[in-house]
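Question (not urgent): is this output format expected?
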Amino acid sequence: MFPINKNSLRTDAIQILKKIPGNEKKQVEEVFLNHLAASHIWKKARTIGVTIAQGFEWDTKPIIEAAWKDDKTIAAPKCTPKEKQLTFYQLDDYNQLEVVYYNLLEPKPEETLKVHKQEIDVLIVPGLLFDRQGYRIGFGGGFYDRFLVDFPNTTLSMLHSRQLMDNIPREAFDIPVQYLITENGWIGGV
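Got this back:
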């Protein structure tokens, strides 16, 4: 048996996500938000860490706007590519974002407040493929694996059941998320 290649899995997962029709994608995103907003995890959280999704990724703007509506703080990441590190900043308005490398939207540090990782109550971790234990294949930069090493609070990811595998190839530094939200509900017991 040959080892599973993470890069080919990433490519396949991206194709799966790109093929989900727009109307189905929107419905699934609404279900994600409904599951999240109804949870005790959401209700007790004051600060939510979340990326600003682009393109084929699951849209995070409804989550951001629901958090603002519920008077929660949104913390969005800024990548430091050389060190492969994430720094989170409080996002109060979309005008505080700028386009950076790979057309990512990230906070402008000069217009936002830094949020320390222990202040983030819930971190929504992006990914392409997952297994039921919460292990994931992300976009390959290792940014979140480094950030999660000493992250003390709740982690979760949103995914379509098509992104769920029996087993994800794991490396020693991989850290699973605690909860998964699919269109069918929670995995990880909420």
